[in-house]
Specification:
27 strands, Beta-Lactamase, 6-stranded mixed β-sheet, elongated, 5-stranded antiparallel β-sheet, 24 helices
């Protein structure tokens, strides 16, 4: 038992021997390692500080040299106040800047210019050979500081000519400081005008003030008053450091120079090229230097070269050697068991990891294959590592062997380049990218896809990028359609609101215009019935009633014309028309209104004007409308001029429609064809009236549009006359234009109509005796004496007026109030002529006429018939003729006109 116990105790002691040896060797190794590391660290710190001081001195000394050189250059203006450009160039070339002062961008002179000296300076600089010299920027200011000299004159320095540095805030602070202190001053960080390349360096400018007479005044105010300009040098930060240190690679230190005391990217002037952000420097230091009154901060960092030449590299070897010796003895006794245990544990862990990885990959693959979104994974160089089945089905651009290829092997170069750029952006920034992209789908169409790209990292810490694309084509299409629908709805609503507004305005005006004539009519009728007046008052009352009744008639005619125009049912009675007669007839119609306002109507007719093909009455209506407007809007004592003259042939639009046998043009099926170089005639109506507002001028021919539709307007009307004129002129193949210099400047309307050759023997409308002669009845005998007329009208007042009119002209009249009574009277009275209304209860005039025409001649089936009705539309005229009436007369009708129509109708039947 004791030996066993002794053996066990020995074994236990032996177990501790390796640990004791290990402890002793580890202590020795630690002491040796610490001594070596401390010694190396102290030496490296000293080398770093020496390198910092040397670099700082080089920068400070070089900048002091440049400032001294600028001071020396300012001496040119001491001996010569008007240094020329050539003298300045000679001086600077003599300095040999590239060789003696490397790193300087150049030397320039910025001249102070007062506003009154600006033009003289520009002329002088251009005279000295600086073409296109201007002061920039170009805006007015109290004083200018423009660069007039800059040497050497390379392409960068040429960009600075004419630039006013005083307009830029950072430069201005330095310039004001140099001016007020009388000493060199450096600006803050700026971008030089010479930066003409895409890659722009940070820069700064040093200014040395130049005063008149070459002396620095004692006070600030005197310095400001006598400032001549600035000798200055622009510096590019990187170029300056390259000039100072040449090819030297700043041994042991990297440095970054900042303007001011704040170390921010906005103040950075220069950073060493070797400054690698991935390297963690062992030493850092911040130094301050003064550059022409401005403080710079220099951040120094140690470079990897300092570590390479450091004895610090021996420290790991010492530590490793000591540890190796320490653990060799300890490891020999324990290596076998520890190695075996470690191997077995590693094998078990590996098997468990592989099993878990397989299950994870199976779940991932199943999820991705059933995902409706296309998914893929690439590395940062565009090598394809994974795509799911949805991607295959959606784009049909990849095959199973695409794994391992780059996107340039699969896609066109243009698409692959854009895709690779976005992949690298995500990989480098480690940020998720979301964008809507247009991609070609498998069906050949371009689809809209919502694409997400996000960074991944694998076990090797390789940067990977995963992407997911969701097809949103239908959603985007629905959004576009919804936007278009909204736009259409808004447009339609605006148009409807505008139409509603115009309609409301028109209805208000229509109500006013229709009610206004009724007031004097009803008023005078009431007075005539209740009071007795002398003959003069009665005549005035009847004249007022007649004038207002005619005004209402004209309003209704205008509305009917507009209705015909809008329905395309306005007809023209085509014949040869003498425009002189048509114009004179229109002038005669408005002459009374013109005389009432003392307006003089002047005419100028060219006797060589030919005839036109058209409707005499409609052309007269065109001129009458224009003259009525001119008289209406011309103040008392004004003037209206009407001119008729031929003009040079021009291209017009000829209106082509269907012409009936009666010579009527039906415009329900109009077409327009160009007539090249057609001889034309021009009618011009001008006045000295109120003119037309330029904003309303484009709408002057619109329906229901008036320049002033308010309740305070001075002039009445429905706003239809000019719209009717425009349509009638176009029906005649012509054009009408309106012109006005503005309000109170008068207006001019010009009508251009095509001239056509007349057939031989054709008589122009209005040139014979069919005008007023037809309206004048013989006075020695009643024209309708003995004529039996059957009058049919359900309106008692109209019927009585018609009977009275006809009986006054000698007719024998039978009057009935319905179509049924008319049929009975026709059988009993055997009348010579039928005069019937259209709109009647139970049986209208059309039905009456059809029944009469169905009778045999001996029962009145061929009786002459006239429709006298308030249905005045073109369709009403055609229905009346179709029903069997020979004539269609619109109410109200003048008595003379009614009698004339009856005479013309029965004339062939009477001896």
């Amino acid at each position: 038992m004791k030996p066993d116990l002794s053996l066990k105790l020995t074994q236990k002691r032996r177990i501790w021997i390796p640990y004791f040896v290990l402890g002793i060797t580890l202590v020795i190794t630690s002491l040796a390692t610490y001594y070596a590391a401390k010694t190396s660290e102290d030496k490296d710190q000293l080398r770093f500080e020496n390198a910092v001081q040397r670099t700082q001195d080089d920068i400070q000394n070089r900048l002091d040299t440049y400032i001294a050189m600028l001071r020396a250059t300012s001496g040119l203006w001491v001996v010569n106040e008007s240094v020329s450009r050539e003298q300045f160039r000679t001086y600077v070339n003599h300095l040999e800047l590239p060789r003696r002062y490397p790193g300087i961008r150049g030397i320039g002179f910025s001249k102070r210019v007062m506003p009154e000296e600006k033009e003289a300076l520009v002329s002088e600089m251009r005279r000295q050979g600086v073409e296109n010299f201007t002061l920039q920027p170009e805006f007015e200011r109290s004083e200018y500081h423009t660069i007039i000299y800059m040497e050497p004159l390379d392409r960068r320095n040429q960009a600075a000519f004419g630039f006013d540095m005083f307009t830029e805030p950072v430069r201005r602070v330095a310039m004001e400081s140099a001016r007020d202190m009388g000493a060199p001053a450096a600006s803050g960080r700026v971008t030089l005008v010479q930066e003409i390349d895409p890659h722009k360096q940070a820069g700064f400018v040093i200014y040395v003030p130049v005063y008149r007479n070459g002396l620095t005044p004692d006070t600030v105010s005197e310095r400001q008053a006598t400032l001549e300009g600035f000798i200055y040098s622009p510096f590019r930060g990187d170029d300056l450091m390259r000039g100072i240190f040449g090819t030297e690679k700043y041994p042991f230190v990297n440095f970054a120079i900042y303007d001011g005391t704040t170390l921010t990217p906005e103040n950075l002037l220069h950073r060493s090229k070797g400054d690698n952000s991935s390297y963690q420097p062992r030493f850092q230091a911040i130094a301050k230097i003064d550059v022409a009154g401005r403080s710079w901060s220099i951040l120094f960092k140690s470079r990897p070269e300092l570590d390479l030449t450091s004895g610090r590299s021996l420290v790991p070897y010492i530590a490793v050697g000591g540890l190796l010796v320490s653990f060799v003895l300890f490891g020999v006794t324990r290596s076998q068991a520890c190695a075996r245990n470690a191997a077995e544990q590693a094998a078990a862990d590996l098997r468990s990891s592989e099993k878990a990885l397989r299950k994870s990959e199976e779940r991932f693959q199943a999820f991705m294959n059933h995902n409706p979104a296309a998914a893929w994974i690439t590395d940062k160089n565009g090598r394809i590592l994974y795509v799911n089945e949805t991607y295959f089905h959606l784009f049909k651009q990849l095959t199973a062997d695409a794994i391992g290829k780059t996107i340039f092997d699969i896609y066109p170069t243009e698409f692959a380049s854009v895709l690779l750029e976005s992949i690298r952006t995500v990989a480098n920034t480690h940020q998720v990218s979301e964008a809507i992209e247009s991609i070609l789908r498998s069906d050949g169409t371009i689809g809209d896809f919502l694409v997400y790209k996000f960074p991944l990292s694998d076990t090797s810490r390789q940067s990977l990028v995963a992407g997911v694309a969701i097809d949103i084509t239908e959603r985007k299409q629905a959004e576009r359609e919804r936007e278009q629908l909204l736009i259409r709805e808004q447009t339609a609503r605006a148009q409807a609101e505008a139409a509603n507004r115009i309609k409301d305005e028109f209805l208000a005006i229509l109500s006013h215009e229709l009610r206004t004539p009724l007031n004097p009519i009803l008023g005078w009728v009431k007075l005539l019935r209740t009071r007795k007046f002398d003959e003069g008052t009665k005549a005035k009352a009847l004249e007022t009633i007649e004038r207002n009744a005619k005004l209402q008639t004209q309003l209704i005619e205008d509305l009917l014309d507009v209705s015909r125009i809008l329905r395309g049912k306005l007809s023209l009675n085509i014949s040869s028309v003498d425009l002189v007669l048509a114009i004179e007839a229109a002038i005669e119609t408005v002459s009374l209104a013109a005389q009432a306002k003392s307006i003089k109507i002047q005419t100028a007719f060219d006797p060589t004007v030919g005839q036109v093909k058209g409707d005499f009455n409609r052309l007269q209506q065109v001129v009458w409308n224009l003259l009525s407007n001119a008289v209406k809007f011309t103040p008392a004592g004004g003037r209206v001029e009407v001119r008729l003259e031929p003009i040079e042939p021009r291209n017009l639009i000829k209106t082509r429609g269907v012409v009936s046998e009666a010579g009527e043009l039906d415009n329900s099926h109009l077409s327009c064809v160009p007539v090249p170089l057609c001889p034309c005639v021009q009618i011009t109506v001008s006045d000295t009236g109120k003119g037309i507002n330029p904003e309303f001028l484009p709408h002057v021919f619109d329906y229901f549009r008036q320049e002033n539709s308010s309740t305070t307007r001075v002039f009445g009307g429905l706003g239809l006359g000019l719209a009717i004129v425009h349509h009638l002129v176009e029906l005649h193949g012509g054009t009408v234009e309106a012109a006005s210099a503005g309000e109170e400047q008068g207006a001019t309307f010009t009508v251009t109509l095509p001239l056509f050759e007349e057939s031989k023997g054709a008589a122009p409308l209005g040139s014979g005796d069919s005008g007023e002669s037809d309206r004048t009845l013989p006075s020695h005998r009643s024209p309708l004496t003995g004529l039996r007329i059957l009058v049919v009208d359900d309106e008692v007042d109209t019927r009585e007026l018609t009977v009275f009119t006809l009986e006054q002209h000698g007719a024998v009249v039978t009057a009935v109030g319905s179509a049924i009574e008319a049929l009975k009277a026709l059988a009993l009275e055997k009348p010579d002529l039928l005069l019937s209304d259209i709109g009647m209860p139970q049986m209208d005039g059309y039905m009456l006429m059809r029944q009469i025409r169905s009778l045999p001649p001996e029962q009145g089936g061929q009786i002459p018939a006239i429709a006298l009705t308030a249905y005045a539309g073109e369709v009403d005229y055609k229905l009346a003729i179709k029903a069997g009436f020979q004539k269609h007369i619109t109410k109200p009708v003048e008595p003379v006109e009614l009698v004339t129509v009856i005479i013309n109708l029965i004339k062939p039947q009477t001896p």
